[in-house]
Every structure is written in C-alpha cells, then in structure tokens.
Specification:
The chain has 18 helices and 17 strands. By secondary structure, the protein is α/β, with parallel strands linked by helices. The two termini are 33 Å apart.
C-alpha cells in the first residue's frame, strides 16, 4: 500500500488532519540532552496518539545533539504506534548519488515512512526516495518563512510562479501515489494556487498558530475536493499545552467543523490566474445574468455561454490552460471533447499539450464511415471527457455511452465550471468522477468580493443554487 493511501486511511479512521510535530526545542526540555529530547517526544506521542493523523519529528533538533541525538530519533520513530504515518522533517536535496544515501538513512536506518525534500535539483534528485512506493515524500513548494518570496514566487515566462510550477510538476510525477507538497499556511492565496495546480496531492501546511497562519483560512484554501488532502502540523502550541492530548482533540474538532461547513469546496480568494480568468469570462459575455431556460428545462438566473470563446483566441487559450492542473493528475490516452462548446477548448488544450483529441458526434454519420466518434483511436484506450460546464450530468452520460460504444474507456469528466446542480452525484452514481476547475459558488464569491456583479443578481443565483443543489 502506498504511503498516501495509508495516510488517507488514518485520516478517515480518526477523522483528523492534525500532524503532531515532534520538535524538541531546548526551551521545552527539562534536561538539555538526547535523553531529555527523547522523553519530551515520547510524552507527546503518548498524549496525542488517539487524535493524531501523523507524527513529524524534526531531524535538526536531534542532529544537534550528536550521535546520541540520532539514536534518540530512532527510538522516537520506533515508539509511534503502528498505523500512524511518520514524516521525517529533514528537507534533504542533493544530486542523485548522494540522495541514495540520504534515502537509506531516512528510511532504512531511522525508520521513517516519509520525508520532506527540496526539489530544486529536479526530478532525478528525488527519484531515490521514490523507489519504494510505500515511502512518501513532501516536496517544498511554498514555504512558510518570509524569505520564501525571494525565489519561490518569481514569475516564469509562461506566467505561472515558480512554486506553481513545482506543484504542477509534482502532480505529474505522482505516478505511484507517494508525492505530496509542503505549502505554508501563512500565505492563503499561495495555498489555494498550489491546490489548484495539484488538485490530487496531499499538502503539508505548516504555519498555523505561532507563525501567524489562520486555521479556518488554511483549511478552506487547502482542502482537496474529497475533504482530505491537507495535513496541518502543530508543534509549539502542543509543547506549551498543559494537556497536549486535549489540545490536539480541540484542533481536530476545529478542523472538522470547517471541513463540514462546505464539503468539497475551497472557499476564499481564487488563485490569481483563476481570478483573472473569472473576470475575463464576465467581461466577454461568457457569463450573463437574467432569466434563461437551460437544456435541463430549469429556469436559471445565470447563463454560462462558453461557445463565445471562439471569438476570443487569447481567452480561449487561458480557459484551456485552466484544465491543465486537473488533467495532469489523471491517466488517459486521449482527450474527448464534447460538441459544441468544448470542441474549441479541447482543440486549444491539445495544441498546448500535444495530447491527441477525439470527439463523439451528436448524431452518427449517415454516409462514409458512419462513425459516432471522430478522430484516430484504438478500442481499449482511455479517454478523459472534456466539457465546458456541468449541470445535471445528463449530456455527459449520453456522450460517455457513445464513447464506450466505440470501445473507449472512460473514468473521468473534466469541466471548467460545476454549476452544482447534481452532475457530480449523477456521474458518481454511474461510476465516473467529475473534476471542475471551480464551482459556480466560488465564482460568485469572487465576483462579490470584487464588486463586479450586483448584489441582487448574486442573491438570486445563490437562491437558485440552494434550491437545486445536489
């Protein structure tokens, strides 16, 4: 079983996203020795093991105590009860030959199950840590210290920041479910952007509390669509607590309360690229407010018309790029764009990425090949369905059936906007997964914050969503 599968199982078993940091700062030790550090950590483990999702010993504090400190670290790791994941906070990063030795030290000598790494040297520098899928790594993406801005937020030629590139690369590298990210909770916008770039990865988000990060904002920005995928480490607050076990339970409940408030969404500010895209769609008339009859027969106060994108090539390219973070985490052979709105989107996406494209016809050809699916493909290949928006899911299921009738395999449907009117549930019931760059609620929240849509229109749309949400 992969490391992150075990982490997911533990999170669900104890309904917790709390990671207990085992950081034996000298100020917390009754005795300034390796024995004192060991005793401090063993007490924390014993007090918090019932509610902790994971434990994270910091290698530096043990290394500073010399050989006896490293032996204490081995003892502390061995003391963690079976079934609770252990992340060694060591932030290693070196050329491949040296990385092999670091991996052996962390996993074989010390007994850790995962480790934090600096990905600055590239993929080959982390591969020695990935050879065993049962071991995991958390790559430093956007760290919680103020100096992270010096390099990690630099804008690349393509328009994304360096940390966003790290997140997107990590999503693509995660073929064995053993790569996660470290993103500081002190920068909520960066946390939301990293989540958008890596929708499927686990994120270790330090910085809540002593470093100034807010718990609620971090949870809302960093949660994965399934309500998991975020690990919040706490160290100093637990070390200072009279009853660390009670404090971990309090934190667990506080996080669970936020998770339950709006499951499946990540409210809060949109990442900058998506915020710009949301405003551009509004300005281009791709989003209109009024009274509209939808394909489902429902009367809606909002209409999403992405067919207009064909007249705005630059905006079409931006929309296509918004699909990329979702698709990077999926496995497929070809894109399958649905006519008509998604055909130009799928074409733009294919041109940007090189992924081949097919599309199901709305009706079978009555001449020539009489095909129902256009494009080059082989039966048995997997396609990911691309569409513009999701409402009830009915049109998606019709298209999936046509694709399957041609011998293609479908697991996933990806859209730009989920209207939250039942598509996710309908697709899930039929055995398919819906992925959306953003929900309509998140777009409405953004336009309210920016003041770009009148309040009465926002209220009418939210009322419609509440009445038809599924």
């Amino acid at each position: 079983m992969s490391f992150f599968s075990r982490l997911t199982d533990r999170a669900r078993a104890v309904d917790s996203l709390v990671c207990v940091g085992l950081d034996p700062h000298r100020e917390f030790l009754a005795e300034q020795t390796a024995a004192g550090a060991e005793a401090f950590c063993l007490r924390l483990i014993e007090c918090t093991e019932d509610s902790a999702c994971a434990f994270k010993p910091n290698s530096a504090f043990f290394e500073a105590l010399g050989p006896s400190g490293l032996e204490a670290l081995r003892t502390v790791i061995a003391a963690v009860p079976e079934g609770i994941p252990i992340i060694l906070d060591a932030k290693r990063g070196d050329i491949p030959s040296t990385a092999v030795a670091y991996a052996q030290a962390a996993f074989e000598i010390l007994g850790a199950q995962a480790i934090t790494l600096n990905p600055y040297l590239g993929r080959d520098s982390i591969e020695p840590f990935l050879s065993d899928p049962e071991r995991g790594v958390f790559l430093l993406c956007k760290t919680s210290n103020p100096g992270s801005e010096d390099l990690q937020s630099l804008a690349l030629r393509e328009g994304e920041s360096l940390y966003e590139r790290v997140a997107r690369l990590a999503e693509g590298w995660n073929t064995a479910d053993n790569i996660g990210l470290v993103v500081g909770a002190t920068d909520v916008e960066a946390l939301a952007s990293a989540r958008a770039a890596a929708p499927n990865l686990w994120i270790l988000a330090p910085g809540v509390g002593a470093q100034g990060g807010g718990l609620e904002a971090a949870v809302r920005a960093g949660l994965r669509a399934d309500g998991l995928g975020l690990l919040l480490p706490f160290s100093r607050s637990l070390a200072r607590a009279i009853d660390p076990g009670a404090e971990v339970e309090r934190l667990r409940q506080a996080i669970s309360q936020v998770r339950g408030a709006r499951p499946g969404e990540a409210p809060g500010p949109l990442p900058a690229p998506l915020a710009r895209l949301a405003d551009a769609l509004l300005a281009a008339g791709c989003v209109r407010f009024g009274e509209f009859t939808l394909r489902s027969g429902m009367t809606s106060p909002i209409y999403l018309d992405l067919r207009r994108l064909v007249s705005s090539p630059d905006l079409l390219a931006q929309v296509a790029a918004a699909y990329r973070p979702l698709l990077d985490g999926l496995r497929f052979d070809r894109l399958a764009a649905l006519p008509y709105a998604a055909l130009p989107i799928g074409t733009a996406l294919s041109l940007q990425t090189g992924w081949p494209l097919v599309y199901p016809r709305k009706e079978a050809k009555e001449y020539g090949t009489r095909t129902e699916v256009e494009g080059d493909f082989q039966p048995g290949e997997t396609v990911v369905v691309i569409d513009d928006v999701a409402t009830t899911g009915e049109s998606k299921l019709e298209a999936v059936h046509r694709l399957q009738a041609a011998g293609l395999v479908v697991h996933d449907v990806v859209v730009l906007i989920d209207r939250q009117s039942g598509a996710g549930a309908a697709l899930a019931k039929a055995g398919y997964r819906l992925h959306a760059a953003r929900t309509l609620t998140q777009l409405l929240d953004h336009w309210e914050r920016s003041g770009k849509v009148p309040q009465e229109m926002l209220k009418a749309t939210r009322r419609f969503l509440s009445e038809h949400r599924s």
